[in-house]
């Protein structure tokens, strides 16, 4: 099956710093990737749709200036959490759909903001 | 927007017992997907149902899509410790909306 990787798997940072998370499709090209956020013991919530070569589409309530998304190539999307605060601590997961009917998720990045 | 509720929120079963989680929507869904997330892991795609009344099986797992396409269920027969995790239903073609999830724990 298709493989989606994320880096880093875990990150701890101080409040006010920025953190970049990478999402890569390893064996397929993805013109579209998706970023989700999952708080402990909760469901996944879609944050934004990352579009290769164009601006990301953000879901309602997600600050685009805080969560910067760049999709510069067909295999890489990055999510930068700017000026992170403790309430941004969460599990961030990306996904891509290499073909119809199946969506593959990355292993996730656990962000802890102190 | 559309929301999907899952029940129960938690389920503890003895190993070997059956398990069922239900997914209910207030509106008609074009499709329903099921995912499994192990503790500390990421969601893994299990299956997609599209047709009204559709039933699909994967070994001990049976998936159903309601006639009205507003509800779905996942049934596991004779649970094993490897079945531990949270089961989510989700709908959408590309952008997914996830259900609230059912966390399954197994008592050996």
3D architecture notes:
The complex is a heterodimer of chains A (114) and B (108). Chain A is built from no helices and eleven strands. Chain A has strands spanning 4-7, 10-13, 19-25, 32-38, 44-51, 57-58, 67-73, 76-81, 90-99, 102-105, 109-113. In chain A, the strands form two sheets. In chain A, strands 2, 4, 5, 6, 9, 10 and 11 form a seven-stranded mixed sheet that branches. A four-stranded antiparallel sheet of chain A has the order 1-3-8-7, with no helix packed on it. In chain A, strand 4 and strand 5 form a beta hairpin. Chain B is mainly β. Chain B is built from no helices and eleven strands. Chain B has strands at residues 4-7, 10-14, 19-25, 32-37, 43-49, 55-58, 61-65, 71-76, 85-91, 97-98, 102-107. In chain B, a hairpin with a 5-residue loop joins strand 7 and strand 8 (71-76). Chain B starts with a strand and ends with a strand. The chains are: A mainly beta (114), B mainly beta (108). Chains A and B meet through strand 5, strand 9 and strand 10 of A and strand 5 and strand 10 of B.
